[in-house]
Amino acid sequence: MEVKQKVDSCVRQIREKTDFVPKVALILGSGLGALADEIEREMIVDYHEIKGFPVSTVSGHKGRFIFGHIGETPVVIMQGRVHYYEGYSMSDVVLPVRVMRELGAQILFLTNAAGGISQILEPGDLMLLTDQISTFVPSPLIGQNVDEWGPRFPSMDTIYDVALRDQIRSVAKSHQILLKEGIYLQTTGPNYESPAEVKMFSMLGAHAVGMSTSVEAMCARHMGMRVCGISCITNMAGGTAERPLSHKEVSEIADRTAPLFKKLVTETIKQLSD
Ligand code: HPA
After folding, report:
1. pLDDT tens by residue, 22-52
2. Annotated catalytic, 235?
3. How far is the CA of 96 from the centre of ligand 1 (A)?
4. From residue 31, how far is each of 20, 68, 173, 257, 264 by CA, in Å?
5. For the residues of 155-181, what is the DSSP string, one character each?
6. Phi and psi (nearest 5°) for 215?
7. Would you say 201 and 185 are in contact if contact means Cβ atoms under 8 Å apart?
8. Nearest Cα to 7, choosing from 162, 124, 143?
9. Which of 111, 132, 198, 234 to mutate for ligand 1's pocket (most ligand atoms within 8 Å of CB)?
C-alpha cells in the first residue's frame, strides 16, 4: 500500500473512535511511560486496534495512543514507538508522526533515552536537542513525495524550534531542573556503539547517541510541524571497559530520572495551550 493510503487508512480508523483534535503530539521514550498517567484521558486507542499500524516488539514498550489534556493543552501521547532495528521500513517508523499530524497536531514533542558522548554529560542528565545528525540512518522521506504533506527537498535548517527551545529552558530554570543541550545522533541500533564509533561520533560533533527521534523529527519538519526534543542520558555511550552496557542499566537510569523529566515535559506542554 502506498504510504499516503496507509496513513489515510490509519487516520480513518482512529476517526471512527474519536474526533479529538490534538495540538501537541508527544512521543514517550524508554522509562517515560508513566508520564501518560498525568493526562486527563479522553480516549485510548491501542495500536493493535489500527489495521496496518506498526506495533513495537520490544518488551516493556507499551503501544497505544492516549488522547486527552495536559493542563488546557489537547495532546496525543504515543506510549511506545517502533524502532528501525525491529525490522520496519523507515516509512513505517515515521507513520505514527504522519498520522498524528493528520489528526491535527501542530507540535511534535520528542523524548528518548540516549547514550552520552560529550564529557559535559553524565548519566541522569536531561539534554535539550539543538540539532541532529541523521546521516547514519536512511531518510524517512525517500520515495515518492506527497506534495500535500511537504516539499520534495525540505530544508533542515532549524529542526528544533527556537521558540520551543526557549520555553523548555525557561521551564527548566523556574523548576530548578538542570538541563544540558546538545546534538543528537541517530544510529540504526539495536547494538550499542563500539569505542571507535563513539570516538568517531564525538569527532563529528555529536553529544549523544540513540536509536530513534531524528527520523521522526525530520518527517515532522517535512510536514511543517514545530519540533522539540529532550534526551534522558542513561549511560555514557559505549559503557566502560570494566562494565559492559546493558539494557537493564539504561532502563534503571531512565526510571530514576523519570520524575524530573515528566515535570519538564508536562509543565512545558501546559504552556502550549494557545
Ligand atoms: N547508545 C545508543 N542508544 C542508546 C544508548 C546508547 O548508549 N543508551 C540509550 N539508548
Report:
1. 999 999 987 787 788 778 898 999 999 999 9
2. yes
3. 22
4. 26, 20, 23, 8, 15
5. --S--S-HHHHHHHHHHHHHTT--EEE
6. -70, -35
7. yes
8. 143
9. 234
